[in-house]
Design brief:
Radius of gyration: 18 Å
Number of domains: 2
Structural class: alpha/beta
Strand order of the largest sheet: 2-1-3-4
Number of helices: 13
Number of strands: 8
Order of helices and strands: EHHEHHEHHEHEHHEHHEHEH
Strand content: 15-25%
Helix content: 40-55%
Oligomer: single chain
Length: 240
């Protein structure tokens, strides 16, 4: 099966190893992975800031870059959810409307692709630690992802997964929300971290590095004994 990678801007710039680990897992599942080096952003930051015309220009490039019948896989439910749910609105009443809808149907968040398309949950990973899982708002509410990541993690040898209180509550990132309302954003992240620490876990795992980036900043400020892990990094652990 041929798969096109969509690597969001912040993953490309700040967490490239997660992208490489996603490739490792997909190739272990016998996927032929391709990466279009011309790709840029999905346009979500511009859209959220109210610059719809600028977003449309970036989104048009996205449609051109991924204009093939292949599946598109991204390590971010936020970006996947934006393309699925908002591209049809961005291109409403235009010649690109149907292409936008069709592209959204081919785009999957990483864990969603593994469990719903490939139908694989056990990748032979091992990670001997105690962890808790954070449901990102985008994964849970925009992509309807809940059990898939947990099923994948339950097959990781040595990983003890413990649910924290209010695991569906927002981490406080919300893109520009964390900049415009930094005090509220930090308080929300602090509450999430305290709930994670209360489980005795040493790691927080999620599908979205945007959430983990937010949490990691507050964790370091608190000097808390907690690390953040994207699920692709977990699934690529313990094997070469």
């Amino acid at each position: 099966m041929k798969v096109q990678l969509f690597i969001p801007c912040f993953v490309d710039q700040l967490y490239p190893q997660t992208a490489f680990n996603m490739v490792k897992v997909l190739e272990k599942a016998c996927c032929e992975v391709e990466y279009n080096t011309n790709q840029t952003c999905c346009g979500q930051p511009a859209f959220n800031a109210g610059f719809v015309d600028d977003c449309r220009a970036v989104a048009q490039k996205f449609l051109n870059d991924f204009n093939s019948p292949d599946y598109i896989v991204a390590p971010s439910a936020s970006c996947a959810g934006f393309v699925r749910n908002y591209y049809p609105k961005v291109f409403d009443n235009s010649s690109k409307h149907n292409q936008a809808k069709e592209t959204g149907k081919r785009l999957y968040e990483f864990t969603e692709f593994l469990t719903d398309v490939l139908k694989i949950e056990n990748f032979g990973a091992s990670l001997h630690t105690k962890a808790t899982y954070h449901d990102s708002c985008a994964a849970l509410r925009e992509c309807k992802i809940k059990t898939g990541p947990r099923n994948l993690l339950n097959h990781v040898e040595g990983l003890e997964l413990i649910e924290m209180q209010d695991n569906e509550t927002c981490c406080g990132f919300g893109g520009t929300f964390s900049v415009k309302f930094d005090d509220i954003s930090t308080a929300m992240a602090d509450q999430k971290i305290n709930n994670a620490l209360a489980t005795g876990a040493s790691a927080i795992i999620s599908t979205d590095l945007s959430c983990l980036m937010q949490l990691d900043g507050v964790i370091k400020n608190k000097k808390a004994a907690l690390q953040t892990l994207h699920i692709a990094d977990v699934l690529a652990s313990g094997w070469e």
